[in-house]
Each structure stands twice: as C-alpha cells, then as structure tokens.
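Bumping my old thread because nobody answered last time. Still need a sequence for this structure:
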C-alpha cells in the first residue's frame, strides 16, 4: 500500500496532477497494487484558504506520505506578496523541511518527438541520461553571503557528507541502469571546493569499481551536452552547476511540458514536473500532462522500487506519442492539438 500526498497547487497544476492520478489508477489495476492519495492545499490555493502557501498540516501530511506529487505553484495573483510569502519561498521550504538533497532530472528524447528539439535529429536521437544535482548545499546556502555598495559575496562550501550522499545515489542509479557511466562535473582547475568534490566522488567510487567514472569541467560539459548528448548516461554535480546544466539537458529534448523531476532525501521524496503553473493556459484543458505522468513513473523507480511499473508508464507515453497525438506545446504548425484529458486518455489506453 503506497501513501501518496498530492499537492496540485495553482494554474495548470490541478489539471496535470489529475491526469497523472488517472495513470496511477491504470497501472495499479494492471500491476495489482493498492495506494491512497490524500490531497492538500499548497501555494496560492493554500494562501487563499489559510493565509499561508504551506501550512503545517500540508507539511505534516507530506512527511507522513511515502511520496509527494506536486503540480506547480504561483501565478500573477500572488506575485506582489512580500518575498518570504511568495510561492517560491514555499517551494524552498518544503524541499528543506523534507531534507530533499538530490534533484534528479532525466534528459530523454522520445523518438516520436526528435523533431521538437532545437538540435539536429542525428545529434539528439537516442539521448537518455539523468542529471543528479545536489540541492541543499553549495553556493546557494553557504555563509557568509551578502552585498553592500561596493562588494557582493557568496561562499561555495561542501561538507564531506553532502558530496558522499549525492555521489552514492548517482553510482547506485548507474548500477541500476546496467553499470552506466557516471560523469562528475566540477571546476577543479580553478576552485578548491571543486577539487574537494572530485576527491570525495573518487573515494565513493571505490565502492563501485564496476562503474566507469569520468571527471569533466563544467565549461566543457556545457559544450558537450549540446555537441554530443549521447555520450552521457549519469551526470552528478553540485547545486550551481546542476541548476544550469539540468536546464540545458532538459531543453534539448523539446518541450517544458515533457520534463519530469524527482527530489530525493534520505526519508522523503517529492515528484513534480519542471514547468510552472502556466497561467496563460490554465483552466483551458490545454496543458501537456506528460511531465507529471512521467514524474509518477520516477516515483515508482526511486521511491517504490518498481522499475517495471515505471517502464510501463514510459512505454505508454512513447506509444501514445507514436500514434501521433500531440498537445499544443508539442504539435507542429498545422497539426491538430488535443486536450490534457485526451492526452491522458491516450496514455491510459496504452497502459
Ligand atoms: P511556466 O513553466 O509556467 O510557463 C512557461 C511557458 O511554458 C508558458 O507559455 C506555458 O504555457 C508553457 N508551459 C509550461 N508548462 C506547460 C505544459 N505542461 N503544457 C503546455 N505548455 C506548458 O513558467 P513561467 O510562465 O515563467 O511561470 C508561471 C508561474 O509559475 C509563475 O508564477 C512562476 O513563479 C511559477 N513557477 C512555478 C514553478 C514550480 O511550481 N516548480 C516553476 C517555475 C515557475
């Protein structure tokens, strides 16, 4: 019995989460497992109800669940709130409170959508790698930090345990992917903190001798991802470099509406599409639900240890796309776009 906390949030969040929950119901019937879904307010929806983007009740429900499924938060209605009350603050808080230290973002190009990439078909076809970004350390959290009239400063610092746990997660995932190659990305030629990162990754690697480890400088990695993305299988990197590289990696695959993510800690995990609440299309049944549906697949891979369920979801997405169905964001000019609910139904039918 899996206990899932659902926090659909704002804008298209509730629409794409509804699609993902239909797919969850379909795989539960196919594979014969039971689950519960409890829905809780989050983001602007929660602010309007309770005066807070993230209530203690919602946080507690997320702590008590086996996994959290998040839609998206934010929108013009809440943009003028003070910084600490904004939806982004609630996102940072939930990640911190749940101790989610690793952000996983796949860069997978679906065969049916190779033409949606900004890169040439022969460059992207077959791309399928995973970025492990360290999420709760590095320069985004290091002290001291600040600025005055004449200086601005931040501190990039990594503790041994922080590097060890993300490196271990990446090597374990590589093992599950059939001893995939791990590329650790840093700036060790310039930064001491990166040399430390590199040393610790190599120490952890001793426990995974069957896995190939490659070190790469971040500037080179940025070039290599767009030059030859197929050379990567698993990437592990720090918070700042991972922020940038995971966006590049995601976008070479096509649309924002296709990209899932997982944020994982030692006790909790949260799954969400990488896109926002898309206020421009909210409430119109136009949003692409695939990113959120694929986030459910990641949940089965990383929280529930059921790769066969994840595989069934990915295959169903692939098969549905192969029949030619497209939501507006992935339709080519002149192509007829279908709705969120129709895309969901097409994927459910394939399952
Ligand atoms: P966005 O991702 O919401 O939208 C960017 C563009 O992509 C829009 O044109 C939108 O229509 C399109 N798009 C996004 N997801 C789509 C989908 N599933 N299907 C089809 N098209 C899709 O980013 P934005 O416009 O910069 O931000 C809108 C709001 O979302 C803001 O309030 C922002 O703060 C918030 N936001 C939230 C998150 C999150 O919840 N994790 C992430 C980013 C932005």
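Sorry it took so long. Here it is:
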């Amino acid at each position: 019995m899996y206990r899932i906390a659902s926090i659909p949030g704002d804008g298209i969040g509730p629409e794409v989460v509804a699609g993902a929950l239909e797919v969850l119901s379909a795989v539960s019937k196919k594979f014969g497992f039971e689950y519960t879904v409890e829905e809780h307010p989050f983001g602007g929806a929660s602010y309007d109800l309770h005066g807070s983007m993230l209530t203690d009740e919602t946080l507690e429900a997320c702590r008590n669940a086996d996994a959290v499924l998040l839609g998206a938060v934010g929108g013009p209605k809440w943009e003028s709130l003070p910084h600490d009350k904004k939806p982004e603050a609630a996102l940072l808080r939930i990640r911190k409170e749940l101790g989610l230290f690793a952000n996983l973002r796949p860069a997978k190009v679906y065969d049916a959508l190779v033409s949606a990439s900004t890169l040439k078909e022969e460059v992207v076809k077959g791309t399928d790698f995973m970025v492990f970004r360290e999420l709760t350390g590095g320069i985004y959290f290091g002290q001291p930090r600040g600025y005055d009239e004449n200086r601005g400063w931040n501190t990039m610092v990594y503790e041994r345990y922080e590097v060890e746990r993300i490196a271990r997660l990446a090597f374990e995932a590589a093992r599950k992917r059939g001893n995939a190659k791990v590329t650790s990305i840093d700036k060790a030629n310039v930064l001491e903190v990166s040399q430390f990162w590199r040393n610790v990754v190599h120490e952890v690697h001793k426990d995974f001798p069957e896995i190939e480890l490659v070190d790469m400088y971040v500037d080179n990695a940025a070039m290599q991802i767009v030059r030859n993305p197929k050379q990567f299988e698993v990437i592990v990197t720090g918070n700042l470099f991972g922020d940038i590289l995971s966006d590049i990696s995601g976008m070479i695959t096509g649309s924002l509406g296709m990209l899932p993510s997982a944020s994982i800690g030692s006790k909790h995990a949260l799954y969400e599409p990488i896109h926002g609440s898309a206020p421009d299309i909210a409430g119109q049944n136009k949003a692409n639900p695939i990113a959120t549906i694929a986030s459910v697949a990641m949940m089965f891979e990383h929280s529930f240890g059921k790769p066969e369920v994840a595989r069934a979801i990915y295959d169903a997405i692939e098969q549905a796309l192969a029949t030619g169905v497209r939501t507006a964001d992935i339709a080519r000019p002149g192509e007829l776009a279908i709705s969120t609910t129709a895309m969901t139904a097409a994927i459910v039918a394939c399952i």
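Residues 20 and 293 are 4 Å apart (CA to CA). Let me know if any region looks off to you.
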